[in-house]
């Protein structure tokens, strides 16, 4: 197994909340509680979970927009946090992000051209014509006409804006692209176009994706590996195939079984139950009760137990 | 034996003045009907006119939108031409609606108990004390735990899913004949979505309430509705029984919508296939509404036998 | 349209005042200070003296025009200083948060609690009379509202995707504040600035009226009002015209600000692709 492109090692992000003025009585919100993930080159790793599970915070930490409370993030073995961390500018060439809301992700007062050219100006001594060429190249790459770059964001539709967001993320030629709910704000017919575009670009430019999503259909379609997060912890992680065909953790099973699925109606009558998946010998699932978590509590000790070649589930000892 | 439709929309047009004396039609000459106790789904993307249709039915279109033509027959009366006062009495009592954003649809300054009790006081002439007792029962029916305490809670003290249940309780308080649900679960988490949808389904089939469900999510529609109308650019382009629509779509747009979705389990079964780009199978979007498909209403098996 | 009305009327009024001040020497052949002939004292408005004359026989029309120079300078420069201070403090407080934000908030609260005129008086007392002291005094007094608005705009803009995107692309903090945040709050800031110019003109008038601003014989609308105080019954034109000038200037700037804010919004300018 080659070294992962990006490794997240025991990431903790804690926020103090509430409490009195001088910090007495403040509680700690454990948004991310000991998350470890590997992203291999050319792969798409998805982080799935519902709102509040910490997936967005994890993504922001990878991007350098959220300082970790503890833990490390390593790119090709070199740490991105701590005293030797690269400057913001250098970090920009490592990982870029496509944002969820196409209506808020572009500066309304800048033309598309300036939003795209800005990063180029900042990062290199390119001539004006080199910049023009690169901007035009990116516009074409995402399926837009280069002539339209002189327009303002509000003149484009949601789907087009998301394409511009993708162009901006790719213009500095990053190795990793973090996709934050890239299609959830878009109409059904536009989603397909953007998903196809993202997959095409991944292949064409050898990109590695970290995708944050709550939409399991999109996740199943696009991912190579999946991590399921629940209140700050990964509860199940592995290759996409076992996660979707043999979901094991109670939370994963809950997520998958409750997706309103148009095909379910066609298969009515056929046995629609997920295959049984008991915990491995000597272990119990952690957490077992997935209905009412306490986000302020220190989590009980647990670990990810291997149950398949690339399939691990969070358990605690059965004793 | 044919049952009379509960809601019969005929040739409804909703328009917006577009400057220069012209009218821009958001909904163009649509017709559909819902039988008592039936769940009917209206599916479409943003801009298709589905939400506007539901607002027209319940009479909540905001100026300058107006229902400019057609009839909305409900229990023998044309709602389109009904005077405002009569419409207000109907709303809540015979037709109720729940919305997408429970936070903005509930009054943040009143307890949930009071908001539910209001329905009984206004429509059924109960006293506030009676209303509050009935509110507790209403909360219990929508499976809110500890209803006696929750009745005194404010909306901001509850989670999104809980608030949506409160909305359902308010809507169903007076046992309306028709419930309109406009994207009721879009703003909720996935697991909560399933619970709320199940709740709506159980309550409505138990009480015989008809449901008009508006959604962009085909999965949600498939789970709940017996018949579906697909809307595009203000017209219903295809209307079929749910099973038939999903197994054998007729209209190009429906085919495109179904093909554009990544389906759970399909990659396991047949590998990763390229998602359908609707614009690649539809030559000209402006011609989409030239051909419309409607399946004839099949008589119910139960009705055929006396 | 209502908006156009603001722009046109506001634009005309401010243009009138500005041009009047700038071209004063061409619009009137008299000197505002030296041309004082007691034989001409207190003459009502007429063919020879359009706005009449004051107690010392000076032409009020001339003095109003030259007074425009003072008022406009004070208004624009002091408001410029105000906006600069307010924006720098407000945007940085909203962006960085933490103890700096607490500090700026505290300072803003203190400034808002002190009556601005008293504060300006105190500064003038330290710096002594004169135009530059007036500019500094007024410049230091009125930045609080701009600061508040800049801060709250920053807080709401900070969470939008394009600000985070700028960070991921590698822009430094100062650059982000200047290029991503500042242009997106131009609207409300501009309106505040024009209101501020109006308010500065009024403050100057008040201070000069109290004898602490521009000292006579240099004409300023404020000290013209002081001079004319006793003349209200005898020669009302000596108060009416400076007063009218103040009124029209403040009105003009307010309307202009309103109109400009809408024009500067790219949403209003272009249509969908």
Strand content of chain C: under 5%
CATH architectural category of chain C: Orthogonal Bundle
The beta-strand count of chain C equals: 0
* CATH topology name of the largest domain in chain B: Rossmann fold
Number of strands of chain B: 11
Uncertain residue ranges of chain C: 268-273
Q: What is the CATH superfamily of chain C?
A: MetI-like
- Placed side by side, the strands forming the largest sheet of chain B appear as 6-7-8-3-9-10-11
What is the rounded distance between the termini of chain C? 25 Å
What structural class results from the helix and strand content of chain B?
alpha/beta
Total tally of structural domains of chain B: 2
User: Mind telling me the CATH class of chain C?
Assistant: Mainly Alpha
SS field, number of helical segments of chain B: 14
The name of the CATH topology of chain C is: MetI-like fold
What gross morphology of chain B would you assign? globular
The CATH architecture of the largest domain in chain B: 3-Layer(aba) Sandwich
Please give a structural write-up.
- The complex is a heterotrimer of chains A (319), B (306) and C (273).
- Chain A is 29% helix and 26% strand.
- Chain A has 319 residues and is of the alpha/beta class.
- Chain A has one domain: P-loop containing nucleotide triphosphate hydrolases (Rossmann fold, 3-Layer(aba) Sandwich), CATH 3.40.50.
- In chain A, strands 3, 6, 7, 8, 9, 10, 11, 12 and 13 form a nine-stranded mixed beta sheet that branches. Chain A has a four-stranded antiparallel beta sheet with strand order 2-1-4-5.
- The model of chain A has no long low-confidence stretch (mean pLDDT 86).
- Chain B is α/β, with parallel strands linked by helices.
- Chain B has two domains: 191 residues, P-loop containing nucleotide triphosphate hydrolases (Rossmann fold, 3-Layer(aba) Sandwich); 79 residues, no CATH class.
- In chain B, 39% of the residues lie in helices and 23% in strands.
- In chain B, the strands form two sheets. Chain B has a seven-stranded mixed beta sheet, with helices on both faces.
- The N and C termini of chain B lie close together (8 Å).
- In chain C, 72% of the residues lie in helices and 0% in strands.
- Chain C is built from 13 helices and no strands.
- Chains A and B meet through α6, α7, α8 and α9 of A and α8, α9, α10, α11 and α12 of B.
């Amino acid at each position: 197994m080659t070294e992962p492109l990006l490794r997240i090692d025991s990431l903790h992000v804690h926020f103090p909340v509430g409490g009195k003025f001088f910090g007495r009585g403040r509680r700690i919100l454990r948004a991310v509680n000991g998350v470890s993930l590997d992203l291999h080159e050319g792969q798409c790793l998805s982080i799935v979970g519902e709102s509040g599970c910490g997936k967005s915070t994890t993504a922001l930490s990878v991007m350098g927009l959220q300082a970790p409370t503890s833990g490390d993030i390593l790119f090709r073995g070199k740490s991105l946090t701590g005293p030797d961390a690269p400057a913001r500018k250098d970090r920009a060439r490592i990982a870029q992000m496509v944002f969820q809301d196409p209506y808020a992700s572009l500066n309304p007062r800048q033309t598309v051209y300036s939003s795209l050219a800005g990063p180029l100006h900042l990062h290199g001594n390119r001539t004006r014509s080199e910049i023009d060429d690169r901007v035009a190249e990116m516009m074409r790459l995402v399926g837009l006409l280069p002539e339209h770059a002189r327009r303002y964001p509000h003149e484009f539709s949601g789907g087009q804006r998301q394409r511009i967001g993708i162009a901006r993320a790719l213009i500095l030629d990053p190795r990793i692209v973090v996709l934050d709910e890239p299609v959830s704000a878009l109409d059904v017919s536009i989603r397909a176009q953007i998903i196809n575009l993202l997959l095409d670009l991944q292949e064409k430019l050898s990109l590695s994706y970290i995708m944050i999503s709550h939409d399991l259909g999109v996740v199943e379609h696009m991912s190579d590996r999946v991590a399921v997060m629940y209140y700050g912890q990964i509860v199940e992680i592995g290759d996409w195939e076992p996660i979707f065909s043999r979901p094991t953790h109670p939370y994963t099973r809950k997520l998958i079984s409750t997706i309103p699925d148009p095909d379910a109606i066609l298969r009515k009558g056929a046995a629609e139950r997920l295959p049984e998946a008991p915990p491995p010998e000597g272990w119990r699932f952690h957490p077992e009760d997935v209905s009412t978590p306490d986000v302020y509590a220190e989590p009980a000790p647990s670990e990810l137990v291997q149950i398949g070649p690339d399939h691990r589930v969070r358990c605690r000892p059965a004793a | 034996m044919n049952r009379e439709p509960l809601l019969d929309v005929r040739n409804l047009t909703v328009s917006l003045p577009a400057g220069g004396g012209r009218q821009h039609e958001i909904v163009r000459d649509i017709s559909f009907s819902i039988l008592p106790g039936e769940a009917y789904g209206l599916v479409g993307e943003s801009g298709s006119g589905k939400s506007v249709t539901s607002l027209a039915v319940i009479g909540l279109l905001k100026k300058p939108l107006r229902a400019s033509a057609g009839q909305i027959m409900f229990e023998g009366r044309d709602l389109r031409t009904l005077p405002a006062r009569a419409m207000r009495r109907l709303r809540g009592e015979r037709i109720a609606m729940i919305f997408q954003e429970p936070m903005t649809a509930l009054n943040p300054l009143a307890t949930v108990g009071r908001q539910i009790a209001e329905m009984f006081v206004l429509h059924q002439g109960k006293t506030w004390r009676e209303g509050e007792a009935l509110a507790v029962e209403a909360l219990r029916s929508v499976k809110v735990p500890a209803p006696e305490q929750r009745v005194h809670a404010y909306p901001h003290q509850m989670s999104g899913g809980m608030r949506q249940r409160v909305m359902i309780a308010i809507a169903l308080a007076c046992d309306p004949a028709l419930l309109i649900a406009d994207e009721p679960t879009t703003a909720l988490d996935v697991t909560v979505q399933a619970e709320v949808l199940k709740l709506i389904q159980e309550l409505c089939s138990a009480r015989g309430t008809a449901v008009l469900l508006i959604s962009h999510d085909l999965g949600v529609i498939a789970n709940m509705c017996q018949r579906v109308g697909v809307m595009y650019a203000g017209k219903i382009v295809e209307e079929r029984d749910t099973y038939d629509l999903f197994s054998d779509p007729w209209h190009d747009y429906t085919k495109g919508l179904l093909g554009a979705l990544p389906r759970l389990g399909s990659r396991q079964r047949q590998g990763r296939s390229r998602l359908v780009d609707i614009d690649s199978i539809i030559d000209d979007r402006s011609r989409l509404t030239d051909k419309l498909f409607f399946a004839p209403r099949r008589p119910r098996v139960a009705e055929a036998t006396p | 349209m209502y908006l156009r009305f603001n722009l046109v009327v506001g634009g005309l009024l401010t243009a009138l005042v500005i041009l009047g001040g700038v071209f004063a020497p061409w619009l009137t052949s008299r000197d505002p200070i030296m041309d004082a002939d007691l034989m001409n004292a207190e003459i009502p408005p007429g063919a020879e003296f359009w706005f009449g004359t004051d107690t010392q026989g000076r032409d009020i029309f001339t003095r109003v025009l030259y007074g425009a120079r003072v008022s406009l300078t004070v208004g624009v420069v002091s408001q410029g200083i105000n906006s600069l201070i307010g924006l720098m403090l407000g945007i940085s407080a909203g962006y960085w948060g933490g103890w700096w934000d607490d500090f700026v908030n505290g300072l803003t609260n203190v400034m808002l609690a002190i009556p601005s005129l008293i504060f300006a008086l105190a500064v003038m007392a330290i710096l002594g009379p004169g135009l530059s002291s007036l500019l500094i005094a007024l410049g230091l007094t009125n930045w609080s509202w701009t600061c508040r608005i800049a801060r709250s705009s920053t807080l709401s803009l900070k969470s939008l995707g394009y600000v985070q995107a700028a960070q991921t692309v590698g822009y430094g903090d100062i650059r982000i504040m200047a290029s991503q945040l500042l242009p997106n709050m131009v609207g409300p800031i501009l309106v505040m600035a024009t209101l501020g110019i109006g308010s500065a003109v009024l403050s100057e008038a008040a201070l000069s009226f109290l004898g602490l601003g521009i000292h006579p014989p240099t004409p300023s609308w404020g000290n013209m009002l002081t001079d004319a105080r006793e003349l209200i019954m005898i020669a009302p034109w000596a108060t009416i015209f400076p007063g009218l000038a103040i009124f029209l200037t403040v009105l003009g700037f307010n309307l202009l600000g309103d109109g400009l804010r809408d024009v500067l919004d790219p949403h209003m300018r272009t249509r969908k692709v």
